[in-house]
Amino acid sequence: MTDEARSLRGRAILMLLLANLYWGLSFPLIKTVTALNRALLPGAGTWYLAAAALAPRFLLAAALMLLFRRRGGAFATPREIRQGLGIGVFATAGTLFQTDGMQFTDASISAFLTQFSAILIPAWLALRHRRSPGVIVWLGCILVLAGVGILGHFDWRSLRFGRGEWETLLCSIFFMGQILWVGKREFSDNRPGPVTLILFSFQGAAFLALAVATAPGAHALLAPWQSPAWLGLTLALTLFCTIGAFSIMNRWQPKITSTEAGLIYCVEPLFAAVFVLFLPAIFSGWAGIDYPNEHATWSLVIGGGLITLANGIIQMSPEAHEQPTQELSN
């Protein structure tokens, strides 16, 4: 690896860590917004509460990006449109299941369980290339599965998780697809700006359609906009956890391998686990809802620790440094 390549890789890692910090912040923010939606509309279903928390976030993000780009830049190319729509499909499904699932489990548990995608990526690449991912990856998989079982309070007698845990594990599959789609070789020359704009527009439209379809009434679509706390929380989600994080991901993730990117994203739950220790009480006081701070329970420490350890072990695998994500075959 040349000095220039090493420097570029280092910058990419630092920028992706910043994106992880923003996404870690999103967990207590989203849980607060959904709880506030429930307080404003006590009769609404959980799918509406999730969609109503997500649609404004991505619609505002798309509008702000259009405003900033109104003077310049060529229209998106067909390849950029294809990449943006592809990411949008995976990200929309993953975000929806993650947000709905968070209504049935703690934000910190959701953050750690989402990282199940970290072992799915090397497993998928190994399956695609028809070879074993190696002993290190298999060991990491065992540790992650153990951590998932502890975090999800797996019931060994009935062999089941709760709804929140299952939805979060399902969302990780879609996030794996998102990570791999971002790094496809055919998209290596795409500009991150148009791709991100298409992504936000797709997500905003999809979540708006779901909100309209599941709303208990027309008043439900307008009620949250009358709450100053809801507006402030949604704006924070838009600026930091949406525009900031996704723009960083689309620009810098293709500079490193897909496996390495998936492992760096595993820092996200560590940020989330710290934020939920003190931010819920602050947000609750502002929004006038009951969302207490979480505590560092033994199940969280052990389960989250096993997942974090597994990701560090997988990082030692040579497959984690095989090739930049933009070099993946189509």
Written overview of the protein:
This protein is mainly α and 330 residues long. 54% of the residues are buried. 72% of the residues lie in helices and 0% in strands. The protein has one domain (3-327). The longest helix is centred in the N-terminal third of the chain and has 38 residues, at 3-40. It is built from 14 helices and no strands. Helix 4 crosses helix 7 (163-182) and helix 4 packs parallel to helix 14 (298-315).
What attributes does this structure have?
single chain; 14 helices; globular; disordered C terminus
Q: What is this entry, summarized?
A:
The chain has helices at residues 3-40, 46-68, 78-101, 107-114, 117-128, 135-151, 163-182, 192-214, 218-222, 228-252, 258-264, 268-275, 279-287, 298-315.
Q: Radius of gyration in whole Å, from Cα? A: 19 Å
Strand content: under 5%
Percent helix: over 70%
How much is the average pLDDT?
84
Number of helices: 14
Q: How many strand units?
A: 0
Low-pLDDT residue intervals, each spanning 5 or more residues: 320-330
Order of helical and strand elements:
HHHHHHHHHHHHHH
The shape, in one word, is: globular
| N- and C-termini, Cα separation | 24 Å
For the record, the count of structural domains works out to 1
User: Major sheet, described briefly?
Assistant: none
